[in-house]
UniProtKB/TrEMBL annotation:
Family to which this protein belongs: Belongs to the DoxX family.
Places the protein is found: Cell membrane
Name of the protein described by the UniProt record: DoxX family protein
Species this protein is from: Congregibacter brevis
UniProt feature coiled coil, ranges: none
InterPro entries registered for this protein in UniProt: DoxX, DoxX-like_oxidoreductase
Domain of life: Bacteria
Listed Pfam families: DoxX
Keyword rRNA-binding: no
Length: 194
């Protein structure tokens, strides 16, 4: 048994040992995935800041948060500047913290009441009924073929799925940093440790 375990260990080391040289690719992939997500979210909030503040503060149709102007500016600029910092891999761990807070607010204040799924299950009877009605309306009064030539028509459920996914990615970056060889953080760290 001991020789089997030892043999497996040598096999695993031979197979995966050299991957350590490429361990910066994982954090790089996470950062590059998150850049457009946060860039679009942040710049859209900034472009419509009056509406963003109103949505943050209004309890009837928005989030009903206290200090909506302060929180709207903090969220918008954390996302936009955070996207740029993630792109460079600069202050990756630091910017992950306000982005994690932003995702937690999104999860609990925006998406929580809608369950897990971001896109509704089209096989559920009530969703299938709505999809059928929407398709019929679009076929009769719209250009259904044009609308669906790039993908299927779906109903957005607006659940926590995407926000939790981004949260997990940000938590990973908080613990790993920007990645070896592929981030400004890595080279700053080497410079500071000399």
């Amino acid at each position: 048994m001991s020789s089997l375990v030892h043999g497996f260990g040598r096999f695993q080391e031979a197979l995966f040992g050299r991957l350590a040289y490429l361990d910066g690719l994982g954090p790089l992939a996470l950062r590059l995935y998150l850049v457009p997500v946060f860039w679009m979210a942040g710049t859209q909030k900034i472009a419509g800041m009056e509406n963003t503040i109103e949505w943050f503060g209004n309890a009837e149709y928005g989030l009903g948060l206290p200090f909506p102007a302060v929180l709207a500016y903090l969220a918008a600029y954390s996302e936009a500047i955070g996207a740029l910092l993630l792109l460079l891999g600069l202050a990756t761990r630091w910017i992950s913290i306000p982005l994690i807070v932003t995702m937690l607010v999104a999860i609990f204040a925006v998406h929580w009441g809608n369950g897990w799924a971001a896109i509704a299950d089209s096989s559920a009877p009530e969703v299938a009924q709505r999809l059928g009605a929407a398709r019929e309306l679009l076929r009769d009064h719209g250009n259904y073929t044009w609308l669906t030539e790039k993908g299927s028509f779906v109903i957005l459920n607006n659940g926590i799925e995407f926000a939790v996914t981004y949260l997990v990615m940000l938590l990973t970056l908080l613990f790993t940093g920007g990645g070896r060889y592929v981030s400004v953080d890595y080279y700053l760290g080497r410079l500071l440790n000399r």
